[in-house]
Amino acid sequence: MTRPSLTERLARHSAERAQAGLRRRLRTVDRVDGAWVERDGRRLLAFCSNDYLGLAQHPQLIAALKQAADGDGVGSGSAHLICGHRSAHAALEEALAEWTGRERALLFSTGYMANLGVMQALLQRDDLCVQDKLNHACLLDGAQLAGAELKRFPHADVDGAARQLDSRSDAAALLATDGVFSMDGDIAPLAALAQLCQREGATFMVDDAHGLGVLGAQGAGSVVDSGLSQDEVPVLMATLGKALGCSGAFVAGSTALIDGLVQSARTYIYTTAMPPALAAATLAAVRLAQTEDWRRDQLNQRIARFRQGAAQLGLPLMPSPTAIQPLLLGDAQAALDAAEALEQQGLLVTAIRPPTVPQGKARLRITLSAMHTETDVDRLLDALSRLPTGAPLARPV
Ligand SMILES: Cc1ncc(COP(=O)(O)O)c(C=O)c1O
């Protein structure tokens, strides 16, 4: 037999990754307490969670989850279109549509599934899908799985996007971008991209996973913050597992779009609906995110404090105004060493390496939260200033 073994090939890929210093390591967190986690018997102050508003352990979310589970049980029992769609899902969808200023919203079990489902429902083979080079993996995968021609443009480069659209001016086209880039933290040029799409007759899609709850009045996200209507951004997707502290995702847009997704999005149709108790907890999170501006104020204060301190230390900050504050180190091993050294000092910060980010762009992905105190931020800055001077970090100016 000459047939190659798939499992052996996979093992070879893993070994190659390890050799290149790119092996991923799964570690278990035993307890979470606000910004602190306990791992391997050690308490660590975490700067890597996406719980930007500090809602994941909020008593109101926990109470809503328990109360709904008491009434509805745990699992939804089936897909939405069978008998899994409960009143908790409907209430959450209504609240999300109202919050984002869209006619309707549709829940998906994860953001990954939402993006795959939208792309597969909207795009046909050989349609054009134009995307920012730094878009999240699931947007890129979605275009490829749909069989569309994927053309990427340089990061945040509106002229580059225009060139890609122009290259096939008669093709049906979707232009998709992260609202806030998940590894860089900067905000896409949404208004200019929306104008481009209007001019070119392309459909504009924004993935606001890291903007919802954090940006805009009442935390309605980057699209609302840019003043863009449903006509200008017909496809708005966001996740529920980041600033809202829960899990899942939704797509918001016109009644026609949502009806179309219900009919055609395979990751909506052929999967079990999210637990209704989770939808109830998420609704409690939406209400808190809308009304408790102090959480965003506190987060913004922590971001400002971190950026000011990091600039004084001469750290390689990136131009991000959001909760995601990467420090670019370049080399994958340098990022791993820095994360390890921070852990020695009691801090949990993740090293992000290729292929999650481009070659030579490894970094520490520091995330800030409303849960962090000023002392927490100062502690992080102090630890960063103590990193070995061989690293491209910690060069006081
Ligand atoms: C921009 C972006 N879109 C989509 C996702 C996927 O969302 P989920 O974790 O709900 O699958 C993520 C991260 O997880 C993300 O950062």
Automatic annotation (TrEMBL):
* Catalytic activity of the protein: 6-carboxyhexanoyl-[ACP] + L-alanine + H(+) = (8S)-8-amino-7-oxononanoate + holo-[ACP] + CO2
* Binding-site residues for pyridoxal 5'-phosphate, renumbered to this chain: G111, Y112, S182, H210, T239
Q: In which pathway does it act?
A: Cofactor biosynthesis; biotin biosynthesis
Identify the residues that bind substrate: R24, H136, T356
Its annotated function is as follows: Catalyzes the decarboxylative condensation of pimeloyl-[acyl-carrier protein] and L-alanine to produce 8-amino-7-oxononanoate (AON), [acyl-carrier protein], and carbon dioxide.
* Subunit structure, as described in the record: Homodimer.
Q: What is this protein called?
A: 8-amino-7-oxononanoate synthase
